[in-house]
Every structure is written in C-alpha cells, then in structure tokens.
C-alpha cells in the first residue's frame, strides 16, 4: 500500500508554509487549461449520464431516495440520493469513527490529501454539478467549486495538521527533586471531539464546506455532510471520492456520510442537537445560524451567516476604473456571493476625482453605466452573472424596487430557460436604514448619500458591528483618511479593501492569504482559516506512568 | 522606559519551548528557600497590616465596600473592596480596552511577563491570602497559589503569544496573471474578541484564574475578574500588581478590574450576559457552568466544572507504596482539589500483589491504614490536610456517612479555631451508583467492589464520559491490561496516571506538561493550556490595497 502521507508530504509542507506566510499560493491551478485536454467534454458527458438516476454511495443501500434539484439554467437534474435516518447516520458514524480516531495523524492527513488530489482531478465534473445547482456560470463554477474550494480544504488540513503536530507524541518528564528526580513517561493522545456535522449552502456547496469537512476529518472526527436540498450533487460527488479513498485505505467509508433531506422533512436540527455530535459547521442564513448558536450549545459551532457589505467612496484618482471595479463586484454571480457589496456610501456633496468634482448623482450613474457596459455583450453578461439560484431572489428584487429611487433597473437576460437578473441599483438617503441595512441577498445594491467620508466610514463600521459584514471597501486618495479608517474597520472585525481597481475585487477571498469572515462581527463566528477554526476539533489526553529507571 | 518585551524575551522563549516540548519545566521555583530570606516573615506582617481595612485598587474610588472573607483557620479577614456596578465596570473596561487593543503584541506580552515577575516576588504575601481564604495549608498555598499559578499564567502567555505570532504583520500578495501579476499589500491586524470575564473559585483562586486572565490580556482584551466572595483577596492583590504595571507603562489600569460581589447580590450572571463581554472563563460548580453554557451563548465560554475522579486497582507490585500514594491523594487539601480521586474500584475477589493475594477488604483497610499513618503526626496532618474551605463540606461529610459501610471515619484535627476533617472512606457495591457517582466534594471517598479489573475500567471510563472526570488512575502489573485500558480512557477524555508511587500523585497537574482538564468530557470544556484555549480570544482582520508598482 502506498504511504499517502509520504506521497503528499511536499504538498503538505508547501501548504503549511503558505498558511503561515499568507502571501499568494495555490496548490490547485485555477486555469482550466492547466488540466488535461478533453476533460471538460468528458465531464459534460459524465454529468449527462448522472442525470435521471440514483447516485449510489454504498452498495445495497435501500434507504428511501430523495432529491429534487433543478438547474437555475433550466432542467431538473433528476438525480436522487439515499436518505438515511438520523439514528442510522449517527450509529454508522460512531462505528466508523472508532477506527478513524485510532488512525495516526499521518494516516488521516495522507488520506485527506489524497482525497483533495482526486477531487482536483474531478474538477470539471464537480464544476458541472456546481453550475447546475448554484447557477454559477461555468468559469466560476470551475474555479470556485473546484480548485479554489480544494485550496480552502487544503488550507484547513495544513492548519489542523500543524496544530496537532505541536502536541508531542511522547515525552520523558523529569523533575529534579533534591539529589534525585521524579521521572514520568508521558504519552499524549490526540482524540477527536465527536461527530462533525457539516451543513452546506446552496450557493457555494463545496467552497464553504470543504474547510470544515477536511478539518474534521484530519482531526479524527467522523463527518456527516448535510447538503442544502438545492445543491446536493456537488457534495455527493465529493463524498463518493472520499469514500473510495477511505475504503481503499482499509477504513469504513462511513467515516464520511451524505445526509440529504428535503424541505418538507428537514433533519439539520435533529442532527445538530444529537448528543453524539460534537461539532457543527454551517453556512447559510442568520436565522438558522442563530438557531444553531442558541440550541447546539455544548458543541463547537462554526457559522458563516449573512451581513451587509459596504463600500465607502470618499475620493478617487481613477474614477472610471473604480466604477468598473464596483460594477463587476455587484454583477459577479448576480450579487449572490456572501462577499458581494450591498451598500455604497457616497457623500451627498459628491467626491473629488482625477477628472474633477463628481456629484453624488454622477457617481451613482457612473457605477450604473459601468454595469451596463460590463453586461452589454450577452455572452459576457451570462458568464459574469450566471443564474439566480433561488426563485425567492427574483421576488426580492421585485419588492426592492420600491425601496428607493431606481438608478439602474434589474432585468432578465435573454437566456432560454435560465433564471437571470442584472443588478438593481437604488439611490437612498442615509436615514433610510430600514431599506439598505437589511441583508437583501442577490443583485440588489444601494447608493447611499452620507454627509461626508467620515460619516460613511462611521456608518459602514457600525453596520458591520451591528449587522455583520464579510467584506468592506474604501476608495480614498487621502492617506490620513485611510489611516483613520483602518482601526475602525479592524474594530468592526471586517476585512477592508482599499482602492481596488483592475483585476482584483472586494468579493474575492484567496485561500492561504485572506481570512474569510473574521468571526468578529455578526456575519459569522468562524474564520477560514485560522487556528481557532481547527484547534478545538481535537483534544489531548495524557497517559503518564513512572519511567523505567 | 524599559522595553519589557526585550527584558523578558528569554523567559518567553523558554516558556514557548517548554509549552511545545511539554517535558518538565518551571519558570518560578516552587521551593520557598529559593526566595529571599525573611520574605515569609515580611509577608506575614504585610498580611496582618491588610486585615481590617479596605483594599483600595484605585485612588478616590467611592463605590460601596463589600467583603466578608473568613479564614477557614479561624478569624474574619476584615478586608473590604470597592464594588462597582456592572455598567460602571463595563464602561471602564471599554474605555481602557480601546488603548489596550491598540498596543502591540510585544507591548502586551512584555507587560504580562512583567506582571508575572512581580507576582512571583509577591508569592509569600499571595500565599498568606490564599491560605486564609481557601484553607490550603501554608506550603500548598505558597506553591499552588504562587509559583505554580504563575507558571500556569506564563504557559497561557506562551500559547497566546505563539498563536498571535503566527499571523504575519504585513505581506505582499503577488498573484501571477498572464505575463504580469496582481500585487496587493496586506496588513493583518490582531483584534481582541471583547471584554474578558474571569470568574474565580474559592479553592484555587489564582491557579485557576491566571491562565484566563493572562490569555485575555495578551490577546488584547480588557479583563474583569469576578472573584468568589470567599476568596477575593488573592485576586485583589494580583490585580493591584497588574494595575501598577499597566499604569507605569502608560495604560489605563482599568484594563484589569476587580468585580467583587456578595452571595446576597451576585453579579456574575449579569456580567456574563452583558453584550460587551466576549469571553467568559469559569471555574466552579457544574450547576453554574451549565448555566453559563446555556446562557452566555455567542461568547467564548471556557469552563472547569466538576467530575468524579476514579482509581482502578487491578493489581500491584508495590502494595504498601500504592496505598500510601492513594492515601496522600485522598488527604491532600482534604480532598478539595478538582483532581482528587473519589472512587476506588477494586475487584470484589481481591487483587494480586507482590506479597500475594489481597482481599477487597485488605485493599480497603490498607488504604485506610495508610491514611491513618500519614495523618498520625498532628503537624504533618495539618500540613497535608489544611482546612475545610466551606462549612457545607462538613455537612456533606456527615450526610455521606450513611452512604456505605465506613472503612475509615472522618474526624476533625485538634487545631484551635480551624475547620478540619480527615478523609471519610466508605465501602460500597458497584451497583450503588447513586452513592459514589455523584460528585461529593471534600474528603469523601468510596472503595467500590467490582467484578474484575475490566469491569472497573469500564465503569471508570463510563463515569468519566457521563459525569466528567479530571483525573483517573490505574494500578496494574499486566501490560496487556494497561494497553487495553489506555484507549478507553483516551476516548473518555480523561488523563490517566498508571502505577504512581512515591513522590508523584494523581492530583498533581504540572504547567507546561500536563493538559489540565481535557475539555473532552463533562468536567469542563476548557483545557489548561492548549491552542484552543487561546486561539479564539483574538481575531484577525486584513486590510489590503494595491501595492505600489
């Protein structure tokens, strides 16, 4: 049998170094051209073959079949999955978990790295699954659903491995006592916390689940993955690969289990409060996140919930590129990223730019015009916007039209069968907090007139503290103003992007460098990935006895 | 001004290395003879001078005075303390906390190390305070209340410093993009979680509070210390020193505040649920620990609660030394340590020893006789037992007498004015779980007849899983039996001591080596000290912007 830890040792070493350095690094190339030719076409065929059939993760499983995924681009997927009862899932996790807990850290780490490698090889197929469940356009589904998600998973492996490695396996404890010494042999055992429950979301089923899945696995916990009913397939394919590797390495594949459910009979609450579950990771609504934080106590609970992301436009030396940058951030995946901005604070009296003074109205229409330009080509528009994952988002756009003065209206793309919408941009006054300070998920954004830049920063950071925020941006040519703003954003626990133009956007969060969600405001208590994300997933138990003389 | 970080850099380096190696290491000598001559006498005088007066931590404070500590060795202390309102405490913590959060990691760490050094120099005085609040005998009050507590605090500083140090201050992120690159300057800000609340206990006010106090401080959180009403003075003296150092270094001394209360008007619940409090550390009853875990949600909550510690006597090659070792563990500080054993499982059919077979009865009476021998000298008895901290413990001993057959009765020592009790040892059957599987805090222990060694291990590990346990011990000459037992104890999350005889006891938990409380069973969710104890006390916020070309 191949020693998987040795086989992947260099990858792990690089990942640990990258996680520590937090400069740019990626293990898995984001460019599809870096992958074998023909992979995309093969994946399309493989995806077509999956449609309309049960996806079996275990032989002889006769649990009832569930699954009603419908592509935001049109057709129902027709894939179904075995839905086991909570008791069955837990019993299998406990049984499989005993052997997994007894595996060495190196064994578990090697297996996790092997799974990541095979997931990478399956990136095109997983991208198809992500595209046709989330509505992400193809290029994003590949990058975010494939290599970027795998990098986030690898990052969690690196952190967890490093934290566990800091616990010595065995030491001689020798305490001087007068002329002699007391000598004890001590063995330190890394033990898992309990079953890990990972609750996936509908928009980034792999990117947001892999960190928890891999952190739990490497630290010795059996894992139950409860996907969103609208995005089961990407995680089912993920677990099919994980179970294959586990089986090949002699472990019970039920170390990882899929727990699909239906909107009519949800099981997340029952799972999250089962006494055998020790860790819950959740990405999704503040409502359910809040329920978990209230009810899943005595467990480690990691959440990424919702927030109101803001931009403050104070001044700029690149008005056009700024508007283009903001336009792209608002448009990308139709504003369905947890990192997408929703509020753009602009001084009511306008701003200074390299091309002279621009009024509030000129800033608002400048952003609107940049959105129009970005989406003027139908093919590019489709590639940027993707589709709307949830029909409720279209209804939300309709309702939002009355919340302010429409600067740019939302419209559907002319794409047959797909559910699409371009960004809605509204102008409101700073006092209209009821309009713009609620999270309005989807392509809905507000240009908000504030007294001045300082007022904008004060409102942006207060919103982050009170409503939560995952990203924030600031445009300013005044270094003193930036320096004053930085500590306010830091106190509000929201990462800040300053003066972004060109090919980098506030929405983007890079594995191994950006700490995604700070855990320091209501947008979530978890951070991808820091030591706190992994350190509590295992515990240390010491066995000590007198050392032989 | 002295650079405190530089001044203490070698100490920190050694502590970090020790925390990683987890062999024997101590920064602060436990032997009183290692301290300046006359220190003990001076401390007695200083302590006498404190009695009967208010202890002022701030000038001009006119908050009402509280405090009714009574020495378990006799007299009331007569020391009083300013009791501020919760709102006042929080407002001051927020004000002082802003400046503290803005201090550099090195500044905060240097100050924490300086405080620890001065606490060490004050060990004799703090020992007086510990002795006359907890009832610990003088030698233990010095060691556990002084250098051992300081080592635990230093350990937390080392862990917190190391975790924070892993976050780079600033990096250049350079992502290759075609022929050019996207370049971002990223600054990573370590930000505190929120105000830290440390709730002290009556038996080890410094040892159990210092890890949280120092972990909170170093990670940038202002700290409110709410001592047990029966043991305020040790923490008041601690904070007096901490506030002195903070002031000298130009910080608002309210970075650390004392929040004394009374049994009639307790404030812990109000403090723990105040929105500004981000971290709660608690040592004490399972009842209040459970309340905190239920109600202080959305905060980091670290608890050390209660459990039932067990010993399994399967066989031994050193019957006398084993009995002596157990006798000492039962007697030390009158069984009032969270690490003291309560249950001794012995096969009903007896055990094999180097001196042949010993019946169940012979094992029980062997331990009883060893207790008698240990406590036969009045001076030694007083030095081992100390006094009973809480009158309720005496009542508990009375009630316990009817729970089984008395093998050895508890009795008071003949010490004028002191509240004392020697260990009560009862024999019961394994079925009498209601008797021996409830925590009965104090010098109360049960010898429990089990079917055989395996039955004992099964019961001991089940008790740990279900009731919680902080320590466990096993005596066995059968290596295969030990090897089978180890994974069961590891799964139960309880550290195991095997075949201890001589000068090392199951009660002892050494800083930098033993992980005190695993966090993996109901005895507590915290561990002193692992990465999980410190990593969530701070968060990381990134500020990124395009790098200059």
TrEMBL record, chains A, B:
GO cellular component: cytoplasmic side of plasma membrane
A biological-process GO annotation: L-proline catabolic process to L-glutamate
Keyword Ribosomal protein: no
Domain Aldehyde dehydrogenase stretches: 83-493
Transmembrane segments: none
Transmembrane helix listed as a keyword: no
Alphabetic keyword roster: NAD, Oxidoreductase
Signal peptide: none
SUPFAM superfamilies reported in the protein's UniProt record: ALDH-like
GO molecular function: L-glutamate gamma-semialdehyde dehydrogenase activity
InterPro entries hit by this protein: Ald_DH/histidinol_DH, Ald_DH_C, Ald_DH_N, Aldehyde_DH_dom, PaaN_2, Proline_metab_enzyme
Family matches, as Pfam families: Aldedh (PF00171)
NCBIfam families documented for this protein: PaaN_2 (TIGR02288)
Protein name: Phenylacetic acid degradation protein paaN
